[in-house]
Amino acid sequence: MKSFADRLIEVLGERDSPVAVGLDPQLKWLPQEIKDRAFSRHGKGLKGASQAVLEFNQRIIDTISPYVGVVKLQIAFYEALGPWGLDAYSKTIGYAQKRGLIVIGDIKRGDVEHTAEAYAQAHLGEMEIDGSFVCPYSVDAVTLNPYLGGDSVAPFLKRAERYGKGLFILVKSTNPSSRDFQDLRCGGERLCERVARKVNQWGRALVGKHGYSAVGAVVGANSPSLAKRLRLLMPRAFFLVPGYGAQGAGPEGLYPYFNKDGFGAIISSSRAIIFAYQNPPWRRRYGMRNWEAAVREALLRMRSEVAEVVGRIRRRGG
Amino acid sequence: MKSFADRLIEVLGERDSPVAVGLDPQLKWLPQEIKDRAFSRHGKGLKGASQAVLEFNQRIIDTISPYVGVVKLQIAFYEALGPWGLDAYSKTIGYAQKRGLIVIGDIKRGDVEHTAEAYAQAHLGEMEIDGSFVCPYSVDAVTLNPYLGGDSVAPFLKRAERYGKGLFILVKSTNPSSRDFQDLRCGGERLCERVARKVNQWGRALVGKHGYSAVGAVVGANSPSLAKRLRLLMPRAFFLVPGYGAQGAGPEGLYPYFNKDGFGAIISSSRAIIFAYQNPPWRRRYGMRNWEAAVREALLRMRSEVAEVVGRIRRRGG
């Protein structure tokens, strides 16, 4: 079984970019033509809304898949649409994987033993139904919340090893209140640093041939000075870095998230890419009729900003 | 709008018991007759399995609703069954609420701003779809994970106030690894005590006429000495206390979870009640044909154990 980290590095290499696009579809921002069509066919309810989300996602994936190797799906936006929304979530996963994309389920689950096992079955595989095996949301990797500790992560670790899946443990989030607990000083260091040590430990047995572990960390793009410290505590972890673009973080802060080899980080942007056509400059240039062009342009700009950072790191490191 | 805490106290009073039953249906333990019927009608897949879960839940609810006022649904066991599983989750919520039960969605979500808003819409209400409002999983209260801090809780607080809903913030879980982070010493006290202080603060504006807040805490039944301390830090919070029975905690440890008025805790048991017929003593007495009798007997035994504790506290306090 190929390690998740090796597979990730290969896909990032094929697309020549460590960028992920977040498929976080908020109904109010979807192009009206897509909503109108879905509502007229499936009704103006959760089913119609979910169908609109699925079509939107498919068109985004078609637009972005030549340029990026990873998509991150924030499950909350699908959960909000009820069972139909999760059907759209499941179908989006399949659609993206068929196009060669690695799919990260941003689920941030965390629970006690049997419950963690049920979540792991749901998202990494597999559940037994009288002798046959199924997995409704079979993503390539998930994000997890660490508050419940090691045994809440164990069922996911087991599947990372068995099925070549990946985990990204939430270490530092992008929101202002992340300071409430994540920045608390616990025995000489911040809580998020203690979490980072555990992430490093949990990932030790799952290091692939490129030297990276299947157990990564979520570290928000707006904490570059902390990222430098976390990089030292988790040298073999891939950092999944949300909050690029919309949450105010630009390319100049990205350096500490990468290792000297130019690997070790996936920079993720959601709203700033998939709803780029809502932003006046792109909107003026392309109009709503050509919203996919705005998405592509916003992605290509981000991609070249990140490529410049990685290029400098590699020149400096070599 | 009546406060959640007042509504809770009234329902607990009507049923004369501060007990909650956890509807955590694991397919492998469901009565075979229910599974066979569901599989023959809906196929041996996720749809059939979800239908079996729904019938099982309905029969459990019919059995227990004269004796308890609260059910807790661990969403992981529904999520594991895919979109059909969440359809069963949604229908179970409605079925329980029609019988006058308060339904707690044990979701332990926690995420950043817009995402937290989407989760709050999904579970407490409501989402707008072109002018109409829907909520797929409208429970009376949810559990939340605190790791992301105050702004991750804010969208739920807003709805607690607006719609009379309740929150239970995870403070201390029942699993052995809860010590990994929850017990860390941070500035002279444990992390879970810091979380408890925040819970108390978040709940201050939502205190009802009985003196209890709509913002409660999850505190595992196997930490009685810690519970004593947490009770002081959160005097107005209802404790949702999982792990009674199956996870080894018995009635003697329950005293510190309650306030001196005999209120302030809901003791929850899941597997030990709903799968009571799997346990040899009940199984021998009732056999699988009469599994609901085993469920009722196990619940009545727990109910009287807890009643004795509450009775002693009230006599002592009065």
How does this model look, in words?
The structure is a homodimer of 318-residue chains. In chain A, 47% of the residues lie in helices and 16% in strands. By secondary structure, chain A is an alpha/beta fold. Chain A has a single domain (4-317), classed as TIM Barrel. Chain A has an 8-stranded parallel beta barrel with strand order 1-2-3-6-7-10-11-12, surrounded by 7 helices. In chain A, helix 3 packs parallel to helix 5. The longest helix of chain A has 27 residues, at 291-317. The mean pLDDT of chain A is 96. At the A-B interface, helix 3, helix 4, helix 5, helix 6 and strand 4 of A face helix 3, helix 4, helix 5, helix 6 and strand 4 of B.
Report a brief summary of the structure.
2 copies of one chain form a homodimer. With 318 residues, chain A is α/β, with parallel strands linked by helices.
Q: Tell me the strand order in the biggest sheet of chain A.
A: 1-2-3-6-7-10-11-12
Number of helices of chain A: 12
The third-level CATH topology of chain A is TIM Barrel
Instruction: Return the CATH architecture of chain A.
Output: Alpha-Beta Barrel
Question: What is the averaged pLDDT score of chain A?
Answer: 96
Output the CATH homologous superfamily of chain A: Aldolase class I
Q: Give the number of domains of chain A.
A: 1
User: From the alpha-carbon coordinates, what is the Rg of chain A to the nearest angstrom?
Assistant: 19 Å
